[in-house]
Amino acid sequence: MESSNELIQLALSLTPAQWCQTFFLLATSVIIVIQALPSQVRSAVMNYGARRPQDAERKPEKSAGGLGALWGLLTKLTDIGQVPHSWFLHFYIVSVSCSAFWAWQYFQRGSLMREMAKLQDRAGGPSMELGQVYAAWLLMALQGSRRLYESLYVSKPGSSPMWVIHWALGLVYYTTMAVSVWVEGSSMHSCRTVWTFR
Predict the structure, then answer these.
(1) DSSP conformation letters of 41-90
(2) Which of 151, 155, 163 is nearest to 47 (CA)?
(3) Residue 141: partners with Cβ closer than 8 Å, 6 or more residues away
(4) Helix H or strand E encompassing 179
(5) How far apart are the first and last CA of the chain?
(6) How far is it, in rounded angstroms, from Cα 32 to Cα 21?
(7) Where, by residue number, does the polypeptide cross the bilayer (predicted)?
(8) pLDDT score of 198
(9) 49-58: long-range contacts at Cβ-Cβ below 8 A with a sequence spacing of 24 or more?
């Protein structure tokens, strides 16, 4: 019980930038662990979209033994909750929406951005200059807009599905990225300085 309270206290002491960094560190760690798995198990978890083998190719080898059973279980699990390829569009809707939302928060002196800047002050102030923040923000907004445009007007949705877990993780990734591009440059001091000159 005491260790769970310490863990909660540690989590509450993190700044918004540290929360983003923790998410990306955990995501990277999971990917590295998955890459260390045997290829059949790895493919059952990671292959989706164009990389997903056809049903005839998704049979485990007879000699795989226990590994074949694990592969079969993972294949069945990933078959549950498949979403259509067209749902990739949601990633770019979230990306563009988040970029617009945080820009609106910034220019309207929004309470959510002020609170996050206050929490970020615990780290001792910004580690990026505002010019760097604007550049990262603009580039992320342009990337999301380009991919949204391509998804709507250029590319045709494929027929291969993706696992709902991949879809959910993609949404979390783009939401976290939208915060990450500006949070390192935020602090109440820098917000006050910029807002004073507006």
Answers:
(1) HHHHHH--GGGSPPGGGGPPPGGGTHHHHHHHHHHHHHHTTEE-GGGHHH
(2) 163
(3) 96, 99, 100, 103
(4) helix 164-183
(5) 49
(6) 16
(7) 12-37, 87-107, 164-183
(8) 36
(9) 49/85, 49/88, 49/158, 49/160, 49/161, 49/162, 50/158, 50/160, 52/160, 52/161, 52/162
| b/e 119-137 (16+ beta carbons within 10 angstroms → b) | bbbebeebebeeeebbebb
Q: What is the pLDDT along the chain (198 residues), one digit of tens a residue?
A: 677 788 778 777 888 889 999 999 999 999 899 888 887 777 777 766 555 555 544 455 544 556 667 667 777 777 787 888 889 899 999 999 999 999 999 889 889 988 888 888 877 767 788 889 899 999 999 999 999 999 999 988 777 788 888 899 999 999 999 999 989 887 654 455 454 333
Please state whether beta strands 162-163 and 82-83 pair in parallel, antiparallel, or not at all (unpaired). Answer: antiparallel
**Nearest residue to 157 via CA among 105, 88, 68, 97:** 88
Looking up tokens 């590319």 gives 155
Q: What is the DSSP-derived secondary structure letter of residue 122?
A: G
